[in-house]
Design a protein that fits this description.
- The complex is a heterodimer of chains A (about 110) and B (about 120).
- Helix content of chain A is about 0%, strand content about 55%.
- Chain A is mainly beta and about 110 residues long.
- In chain A, the strands form 2 sheets. In chain A, strands 2, 4, 5, 6, 8, 9 and 10 form a 7-stranded mixed β-sheet that branches. In chain A, strands 1-3-7 form a 3-stranded antiparallel β-sheet, with no helix packed on it.
- The termini of chain A are far apart.
- In chain B, strands 2, 4, 5, 6, 9, 10 and 11 form a 7-stranded mixed β-sheet that branches.
- The N and C termini of chain B lie far apart (about 40 Å).
- Chain B is mainly beta.
- Chain B is globular and about 40 Å long.
- In chain B, β7 and β8 form a beta hairpin.
- At the A-B interface, β4, β5, β8 and β9 of A face β5, β9 and β10 of B.
Amino acid sequence: EIVLTQSPGTLSLSPGERATLSCRASQSVSSSYLAWYQQKPGQAPRLLIYGASSRATGIPDRFSGSGSGTDFTLTISRLEPEDFAVYYCQQYGSSNTFGQGTKLEIK
Amino acid sequence: QVQLQESGPGLVKPSETLSLTCTVSGGSISSYYWSWIRQPPGKGLEWIGYIYYSGSTNYNPSLKSRVTISVDTSKNQFSLKLSSVTAADTAVYYCARLDVSYYYYMDVWGKGTTVTVSS
């Protein structure tokens, strides 16, 4: 089973700042099968990025994804108040796994 | 616009079987994969498994011995059964539409339903 490790566990930033979230896989992952989700308290996750770098429908262009192999990154170029949430990466090999999440909190 | 709604008992006794249904509205269940995911209180997401509308399935190896996912295309529904539940199965259970084409991602989610395992 491929294990996804997200870092940092918690990221404290201010609105307007740039956020960089990391997702590292225990073995190589196909970029086509790497996605990112945002989850706010009491809500279901929302798809942000699929195929490592493609934005889902309706996702603002301040969200971007990059990476390949075992290292992937979600970048939020300029934080808006509504961006403070928990972010999960997800991969599919023969089985589906999620990272443990990064909590993005207001500093 | 496709919407998903989970339904089922909110309380299940230990050792019994958890049963949930996801109803798909605003679109057909055909030609897509459908998945179940759960989230224990205060913890992260855990994939349970998925089913294609034709009935083929893939389960999380750690849950495979206890999980059955089925589909009823006539009702536009798919279902989850998890047997021999314990307190560790207490979680919010989500259903989601899964795109498994060139990519793999869950683009439509239900709101989730809370299931508590307790006597």
